[in-house]
Design brief:
By secondary structure, this protein is α+β, with helices and mostly antiparallel strands. It is built from 11 helices and 12 strands. Strands 1, 2, 3, 4, 5, 8, 9, 10, 11 and 12 form a 10-stranded mixed sheet that branches. A two-stranded antiparallel ribbon has the order 6-7.
Length: 396
């Protein structure tokens, strides 16, 4: 089998819910990330991209009817370029990258683009379609922004609690204090602001709609300020708006290819896809699923946590992130500070379908910057799943 490589990545800034990107259609966000990626590759003929795999979690509004294909067309790529849309909720774009890497490794493709998009602002309300004409009763419009909707009544009640309640249960299981969660949240904002200040994200982010920087980052966020926020899911709970990811809009894209595709792409690769992992738990335990997924990816890469120099873990909630990092430290990760050293989703944001592409692109850039050989990108997924990818730095 061939190997697959990351060559380049690009993403939009992540906008706040109802913020600067609120008037930008979801398919236009997707096209912006795709166009921005191709602009970074002037030597690549877009018509030579074998397939585009695009992640999206909601798919109920302007992102419906295969938003990956819509992005290809809106970005001005040749109509001959094929595209598909992948839905594994929060893991959608990382799943897309994993699928693209498999295509390359079995020689079904030489060059593929993986990415994802979500506009949580523009996610519509939906109504169940009646089974009969003109029903007599009332119907309720349901928001598709976040979480389960139109839940099947056959699902056990413990599986269908809110994402916040799931993580309050995780907090109880692992005894993770409110203070630790707030410290983790403050760190996310501090490191993200520092990374922007030092120019780390300048080459990774494509401005859109006048926004050039992630909109949710709050410079100077203090532990004292976070401690004053009220619990969001239980009256006596530990999870607040300050220690979990916000609702966001944004898109991300990653170019993958074989080793021999370097001449066609016009540049050398930066990282090899060395291992992939996936795992599932009970739906309410979804926040902990990255632990097993990452372990599987490391085994497939033939390395251990002791070899890992950089980790990008999507911070859906501080509590689940802490639980995962604690587990990895017990398994041999040498230092918690290698996790999200450029900030994470609590600060940067979590537009569901785009987050996997963001952490993969960020991880590749971190490995190039630091010179570390091995890195892990991992993400938790609602309804009890997790994904992970191991990258090997190939930049001399």
């Amino acid at each position: 089998m061939s190997s697959s490589y990351v060559y380049a990545s690009a993403r939009t800034p992540f906008g706040r819910f109802g913020g600067a990107l609120a008037d930008t259609r979801t398919d236009d966000l997707a096209a912006t990330a795709l166009t921005g990626l191709l602009e970074r590759l002037p030597g690549l003929d877009p018509g030579l991209v074998d397939d585009v795999l695009w992640g999206n979690a909601n798919g109920a509004g302007e992102d419906n009817r295969n938003v990956g294909r819509m992005a290809v067309l809106l970005a001005g790529m040749p109509v001959s370029v094929t595209a598909t849309t992948v839905n594994r909720l929060c893991g959608s774009s990382l799943d897309a990258a994993m699928m693209a890497s498999r295509m390359i490794e079995v020689d079904d493709a030489e060059i593929a683009i993986a990415g994802g998009v979500e506009s949580m602002t523009r996610a519509p309300w939906v109504l169940p379609k009646p089974s009969r004409r003109f029903p007599a009763g009332d119907v309720t419009a349901v928001s598709t922004t976040l979480g389960w909707r139109l839940v099947n009544e056959r699902m056990p009640a413990e599986w269908t609690v809110s994402l916040g309640e799931c993580n309050e249960q995780l907090q109880e299981k692992f005894s993770i204090s409110r203070e630790r969660q707030d410290e983790f949240g403050a760190r996310s904002h501090r490191l993200a602001a520092e990374a922007w200040e030092k120019g780390f994200y300048d080459d990774l982010v494509v401005p859109v709609a006048g926004l050039g920087r992630d909109e949710s980052i709050r410079e100077g966020t203090s532990l004292e300020a976070l401690a004053g926020l009220k619990p969001a899911f239980r009256p006596d709970g530990t999870i607040t708006a300050g220690n979990c990811s916000p609702l966001n809009d944004g898109a991300s894209a990653v170019l993958l290819g074989s080793e021999r595709a370097a001449a066609t792409i016009g540049r050398d690769p930066v990282a090899r896809i060395a291992g992939r992992g996936w795992a599932a738990l009970s739906p309410q335990q979804f926040g902990y699923a990255p632990v097993d997924a990452a372990d599987d990816a490391l085994q497939r890469a033939g390395i251990t946590w002791e070899d890992v120099g950089a980790v990008e873990l999507n911070e859906a909630f501080a509590v689940q992130s802490i639980a995962c990092v604690d587990a990895w430290l017990e398994l041999g990760l040498r230092d918690a500070e290698v996790v999200n050293a450029k900030g994470g989703a609590i600060a940067i944001g979590h537009p569901l379908g785009a987050s996997g592409g963001r952490i993969l692109g960020t991880l590749a850039a971190r490995l190039v910057e630091s010179g570390d050989r091995w890195g892990v990108a991992a993400i938790c997924i609602g309804v009890g799943q997790g994904l992970a990818v191991v990258l090997e730095n190939v930049v001399a």
